């Protein structure tokens, strides 16, 4: 599926496009330029200011209560499994409550990431855009070497599983990150069991097929500084995530928008909840039953927003294909070609951020 709101420059193939500045290292620095009254043209994603607006959906965004998924009451548990499957199918997105992750830890994560972005550029890991699978990467936009329009966002990406990495500054980051990533993996394990059951599989079948014991977990911290033209810039362009389930917390309520029934919808998260979106590999594994959700981040001109993202995927070595039992139950054939997760990831991250373009490449048929 292509983005429904095409970006400014991709729409006119015949226009000569000036290349983006190659020396951009941080949008934070740019935003701190004294008297910055407008964005450089390379950040104008839309030419129509209404394109970044979204509605507050009439349908309520679903909530999933993790404690009910592990309930010892079989009735309660099966209702929770059903609710989880329905949320994945109808929205590809839900707000997770009663997840058991201490609020203190979530707040500490946000604080330590604030400190990270406040370090001088010389203290941060080197920004090397061509090495997209380096375990620790600090950068700006999505893939600044390829993006035609730059995103108003700086990021830190760290591979935290199956091998744990961490920047060595700020000092408290390593321990916090280790604890947070482990707790998130435990939450994801419970969600995956419920999703597996909801797909008509054994509770442990999905975990086994995708080799989640050595699943790839990528920590992404996003900084969206105040932007002088929030109506035409984007923090992150429309995209779906490559993995299975992405779990997001944030310091500011608004900013994330998801696509639902073809419309952009604002996500207004309840306090202490975790936002969960389904990724491309859940779409592949479920043979298109649970479509990965398109989402984007918008920016504002008043406050810096930080989001802390944990992307949880299959093992990098797993060759992922639609689950045969699901395909049989649908009475059709696989809709996606098998592919090693590592190769999918490399290809998606090496290109510009462009909707669900990577998934389209392995799609055999629309279901
Ligand atoms: O900042 C957000 O809310 C979304 C971030 C996101 O979509 C991503 O990092 O993939
Ligand atoms: Fe995302």
From TrEMBL:
All residue ranges annotated as the Fe2OG dioxygenase domain in the record: 214-314
GO biological process per UniProt: coumarin biosynthetic process; response to molecule of fungal origin
Annotated segments matching region Disordered: 1-26
* One of the record's GO molecular function terms: 2-oxoglutarate-dependent dioxygenase activity
Key words, A-Z = Iron, Metal-binding, Oxidoreductase
> Which family does the similarity line name?
Belongs to the iron/ascorbate-dependent oxidoreductase family.
Q: What is this protein called?
A: Fe2OG dioxygenase domain-containing protein
State the organism named in the record. Buddleja alternifolia
């Amino acid at each position: 599926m292509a983005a429904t709101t095409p970006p400014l420059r991709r729409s006119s193939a015949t226009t000569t496009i000036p290349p983006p500045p190659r020396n951009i290292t941080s949008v934070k620095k740019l935003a701190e330029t004294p008297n910055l009254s407008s964005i450089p043209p390379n950040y104008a994603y839309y030419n129509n200011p209404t394109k970044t607006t979204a509605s507050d959906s009439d349908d309520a965004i679903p909530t999933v209560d993790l404690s009910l998924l592990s309930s010892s009451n079989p009735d309660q548990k099966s209702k929770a499994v059903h609710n989880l499957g329905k949320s994945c199918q109808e929205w590809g997105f839900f707000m997770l409550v009663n997840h058991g992750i201490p609020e203190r830890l979530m707040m500490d994560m946000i604080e330590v990431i604030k400190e990270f972005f406040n370090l001088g550029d010389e203290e941060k890991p080197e920004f090397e855009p061509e090495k997209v699978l380096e375990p620790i990467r600090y950068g700006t936009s999505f893939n600044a070497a390829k993006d035609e329009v730059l995103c108003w966002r700086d990021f830190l990406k760290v591979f935290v599983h199956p091998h744990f990495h961490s920047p060595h500054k700020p000092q408290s980051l390593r321990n916090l990150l280790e604890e947070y990533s482990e707790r998130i993996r435990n939450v994801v394990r419970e969600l995956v069991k419920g999703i597996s059951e909801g797909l008509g599989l054994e509770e442990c079948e999905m975990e086994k097929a995708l080799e989640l014991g050595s699943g790839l977990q990528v920590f992404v911290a996003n900084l969206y500084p105040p932007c002088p033209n929030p109506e035409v810039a984007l923090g992150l362009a429309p995209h779906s995530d490559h993995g299975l389930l992405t779990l997001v917390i944030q310091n500011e309520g608004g900013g994330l928008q998801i696509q639902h029934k073809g419309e952009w919808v604002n996500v207004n998260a309840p306090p202490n909840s975790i936002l969960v979106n389904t990724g491309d590999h859940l779409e592949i594994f479920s043979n298109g039953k649970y479509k990965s959700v398109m989402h984007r981040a918008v920016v504002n001109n008043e406050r810096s927003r930080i989001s802390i993202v944990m992307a949880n995927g299959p093992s990098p070595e797993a060759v992922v294909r639609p689950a045969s039992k699901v395909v049989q139950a649908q009475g059709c054939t696989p809709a996606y070609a098998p592919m090693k997760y590592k190769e999918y990831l490399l290809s998606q991250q090496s290109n510009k951020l462009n909707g669900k373009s990577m998934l389209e490449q392995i799609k055999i048929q629309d279901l």
